[in-house]
């Protein structure tokens, strides 16, 4: 072999490790995580999301990065946070917590894949064209929690067959507050029950609302689904105990911190499904081809210790239907 060819061969061989290192150091895909609530109240759900990502083959910090953006219950921050993720050129945006993150993400981009979790019909919201064929850059989970208000009202009526007006606590800033309230009013009318509506859009409003309930001697309370209320679930359960107001909430997280009763979807299951879809998208699937997932089961959780503290006897028929009874 000639000297010149030998040197060229050595030079090429020396370049191989560099090329290999460059390939190994290719940028990791980035997941944008957009939530309208606070991080410290969703740590258990983020843990489920990470574990489910691992099961899909993606380990945070190893072969995928996650950029978290929390609005801290200040919904006016969402557009700016979504814009940050778009500029970051993330591979997919996870929009969870409520309706607003999904709507904000959809307004921010029509090209970056979006995986959402919303409590209302995503077709009516304009997120997808249909549940089976989203035909857009968005898909995810729709758990119709707003439409469960009538069911929650009926369950509470079984436990507290009150004659006085039931209280409904509602965030007036919710995009579908009017629709959710209308459904509950129709359900209340069907059982001959009147409703009194109180509004709360901040933690201070919640305190004011409970003082108003005390003056009205409210027999029972129905919480309308909202990310703010989920963030403030400890506050809500504490105030309900302080003012001795039986209440029904929207997910097991409330019952686990002392709430009397909850009926709704299992939020952890939603986060598992979201992570599964994110994994499939990172592997090349298109949101337009992934049907919107709907829950097949809703769970009833009763905190029997809270019922006893309130002096309530839970009917055996209601206990028998509960998916979990917290002693």
Number of strands: 12
Per CATH, what is the topology of the largest domain?
Rossmann fold
Helix content: 40-55%
The CATH architecture of the largest domain would be: 3-Layer(aba) Sandwich
What's the total helix number? Answer: 13
| SSE arrangement, N to C | HEHEHEHEEHEHEHEHHEHEHEHHE
Task: Outline the structure in words.
The protein has 2 domains: 30-143 and 266-289, Response regulator (Rossmann fold, 3-Layer(aba) Sandwich); 146-264 and 299-326, Response regulator (Rossmann fold). The termini are far apart. It is elongated, with a radius of gyration of 24 Å. It has 327 residues and is of the alpha/beta class. The chain has helices spanning 3-24, 43-55, 78-87, 99-108, 149-159, 177-190, 203-216, 227-231, 233-242, 252-256, 267-282, 304-309, 316-321, and strands at 30-35, 65-70, 92-96, 114-118, 138-142, 166-170, 195-199, 221-223, 247-249, 261-264, 299-303, 324-326. It has a 7-stranded mixed β-sheet, with helices on both faces. It has a 5-stranded parallel β-sheet with strand order 2-1-3-4-5, with helices on both faces.
Fold blueprint:
Elements lengths: L2 H22 L5 E6 L7 H13 L9 E6 L7 H10 L4 E5 L2 H10 L5 E5 L19 E5 L6 H11 L6 E5 L6 H14 L4 E5 L3 H14 L4 E3 L3 H5 L1 H10 L4 E3 L2 H5 L4 E4 L2 H16 L16 E5 H6 L6 H6 L2 E3 L1
